[in-house]
Amino acid sequence: MTTPGTAEHADEFSLETWLRLHGVIAAKAVAGSDDVSGSVQVKTLQLNERCLTIHMNVGNRSGVIKAFNPALTQSRQSIDREVSILGALKGTGLVPELMAVSQKNHFFVSGFVAGSTQLKEIDERNVVSVACDLGQWFAEFSNRMPSAEVKSNWFEYLSRYDEVLTKEEREQHREVLSKLPILKQVISKNDAHLSNFIRQSDGRLVGFDFEAAMKKPMGWDILLTARVLAKQFPGQIEEIVTALVEGWGQGTDQIDQAEFRQLVMVFTLATAFKALTQNRSWLQQMIDAYNSSDISGTTKVQSGFLAPFGTENLIPTDPATVTKFKAFLHDLADRSLAEKPPATTHSAQPAPSAELSALCAMCRGKCCNKGTQNNAYLKVQTLAGIMQRRIGIGADEIVDHYLSFLPENHVEGSCLFHGAEGCALPREDRSDTCNAFLCESGKLMQESAEQIARRGGEILIVSHTDGTARRAGVLRDGELCEIDASAFTKDDAG
Length: 494
Ligand code: SF4
Ligand code: SF4
Fold this sequence. Notes:
- This protein is an alpha+beta fold.
- 40% of the residues lie in helices and 20% in strands.
- The chain has a five-stranded antiparallel β-sheet, with helices on both faces. A four-stranded mixed β-sheet has the order 12-17-18-19, with helices on both faces.
- The two termini are 33 Å apart.
- Bound molecules: iron/sulfur cluster (2 copies).
- One iron/sulfur cluster (SF4) binds next to helix 11 and helix 15.
């Protein structure tokens, strides 16, 4: 099954294409001169739909190039954010040194930082000291960033984000949160992923990746970091929060350090901790039950994940809905031909890991269930892709092209393109939204890649609705074996 967030092809925004177009100018930027006659070595550090990061050696000079996909509208904003932060922190040692910027070609070059990512170097034994170091890093970062005055409080602020705290959870903490004012917003990293920190051999942390940076209430990064660490080490939440806030060494502009610690605790327990612990014991019981059963393999299940549940009931495609969709497509095709927007590319995401594919296969595409009402998330930019591939194509042909992929039957309540085998639309004809989306379970699976590899063994995946297991499978040696889910219900498991 093909699902959103699991791209398959890699041809357009690729290393080869990028080097062909910009390799020489990038090599000159790394070399710091027009003489690039020495040996040039290139290693890809990261490649996804949004950006390409490469380590380039030119002679005895070394640099890291981060290039943004020019076909994506957000690339301009991403490079601006990165460059403004690297520029503001130049010489502080908090971030890599900015060496060169090519706004025109959507890339910048920074110094290469040797060391390993904090994600690789964290475990139960060092998490508390790592938390303290991250707190210090964020304090140094935050204290150098521009700020703006606002008038709010943490209850009001968090009320804007249903995905952070539900209404019930906010109400539960209303008394505490509404007494904590926010009078200052400061540019925050707004991304606390541990793979974006490198620990150098002298112990210093260097932070990367400022694409998500924006103004947030002072201390926001500490909240996000606490959540990231708590997800990985739910048994050490108290110590982690204490160390993080101690490293941060302050409250916010309005609240003292003790109140700030209380805020971080509330946030962490209600977000990351909630997501894991509400289901953790249930998941563990399912793992134990499976491992002690006759069907368990010799390597045993070492990791478990919950997936959403998407139905697999197929219904015939309704002609009236297709007629409506056809009208939408006609309008979109006309606008695309008139506006001629730059084509988006969907091709550079790495192939999904076996674990992520297994998770989506167990779920069967729950994330596509709003596809019909959103017209498969298609935009003028999406159609520009086919206009580029088939020069001279007309509106009718574009419409026919899309309609030709509609399956006779689609998954009940889901997108018209959601057929028995998953999405029937080729990846290059899908919207950016479809190609990039990953649900919370998918993100958790992705973030846990290191842990999964460290633990080894098999992986249990249970697709459920409100504590009732609907489908279950075990990923063993890269193969997903479906198992009987009826034995796993939350109530039975306690
Ligand atoms: S697991 Fe998440 S990303 Fe994968 S198909 Fe289900 S809802 Fe979509
Ligand atoms: S086009 Fe429809 S079925 Fe395909 S990924 Fe998007 S929402 Fe899902």
